[in-house]
Design a protein that fits this description.
The protein has about 325 residues and is α/β, with parallel strands linked by helices. The protein has 10 helices and 13 strands. The strands form 3 sheets. An 8-stranded parallel β-barrel has the order 1-2-4-5-6-7-8-13, surrounded by 6 helices. The protein has a two-stranded antiparallel sheet with strand order 9-10. Strands 11-12 form a two-stranded antiparallel ribbon.
Length: about 325
């Protein structure tokens, strides 16, 4: 993003998240490092029941998800008024930013035709600005899963550019959830304020520390600045030999009570507190912009919370 948008992004964060360290006097080298932020997705099917602790450590909340229409409209049928109101309540409680997710797995059917049509792109961008202004959202996260070829990747870059230009005067944020294997045109990355790197659901043990490091390096090798990368981590586990079988971290704790040091129990691979903290330190030491969580409603409560473990790692020396 250009210098104006970079300054605007810092100002929005300072207002929404209480982050004002970037230009503050510092006494140590460690304090010169920008704060690593935490973004958490909250799906429509969990928002009504989600009740985080008063200060849970959420810097950006992403409400998942609306769908785009081919003509450039916004289908909010999965997110009726009460769901959006609950998200705004969490935003106020946490003092965080609130983004609307558009798309997702099996919710991306309209993107190819929408992105290929200049008029539809314009309508879509204008509609997103109007939605954010009316609903009190701070921006949008696009989750096209996935452009299937070079042409669709180029159209995606055009769509992101249209939205970015519409968002800049309104002070809105634009992010996108991307799979590690995706290789988009350079312009696509330039239009984004943040990239939510989905470093999970890989084959086998689906979200190891080593895979996270490799996934980040792929983006860096494509020329993406580290400060734009949010490393995605799972709050769930999968069976390496039966990938369709998954449990939330809360369910894993209830069934197997795994030690915080381990990442496998009952045949499921997951990220326990120690692995998540190791990833958080990697993100901090590597200058990444943040950690992204899929998804907040899968977490355990109280002292066993993975969100709590992340916060401890990110706020400790």
């Amino acid at each position: 993003m250009n210098r104006f948008r970079a300054l605007l992004w810092l100002a929005v964060l300072a207002w929404g998240c209480g982050w004002g360290r970037a230009n503050a006097p510092v006494d140590t080298e460690e304090e010169t490092m920008p704060r690593v932020l935490v973004t958490g997705y909250l799906p429509d099917y969990r928002v009504a029941d989600y009740a985080p602790a008063a200060k849970a450590g959420i810097d950006v909340l992403v409400l998942f998800s609306a769908e785009a229409t081919v003509a450039g409209g916004l289908d909010l049928s999965r997110l009726p008024g009460p769901a959006r109101e609950r998200a705004r309540q969490i935003k106020m409680q946490q003092g965080c930013l609130l983004l609307l997710s558009v798309g997702g797995w099996d919710r991306s059917a309209a993107f190819p035709a929408l992105a290929a049509d200049a008029a539809a792109r314009g309508r879509f961008a204008a509609g997103l600005v109007e939605f954010c202004r009316e609903e009190g959202f701070d921006g949008v996260d696009l989750d096209w899963e996935h452009p299937k070829d070079q042409r669709e990747g180029e159209d995606f870059a055009l769509l992101l550019g249209e939205i970015s230009r519409a968002f800049a005067p309104a002070g809105l944020q634009l992010s996108s959830a991307l799979a590690p294997w995706q290789d988009l045109p350079a312009a696509a990355y330039q239009h984004l304020d943040r990239i939510h790197l989905m470093s999970y659901d890989n084959p086998g043990r689906h979200s190891t520390y080593e895979a996270a490091v490799a996934d980040v390096q792929r983006l860096l090798d494509r020329g993406v600045p580290a400060a734009k990368i949010w490393l995605g981590v799972p709050f769930y586990g999968r069976k390496p030999e039966a990938f369709d079988q998954a449990l939330t971290y809360a369910q894993l704790l209830a069934q197997f009570n795994p030690d915080p040091e381990v990442d496998e129990a009952g045949g499921y691979y997951f990220n326990g507190p120690r692995t998540l903290q190791r990833k958080a330190r990697f993100a901090r030491d590597g200058g990444l912009g943040g950690i992204m969580v899929w998804e907040l409603g899968q977490d355990a409560a109280g002292e066993q919370s993975l969100l709590r473990a992340l916060s401890q790692a990110l706020n400790s020396p």
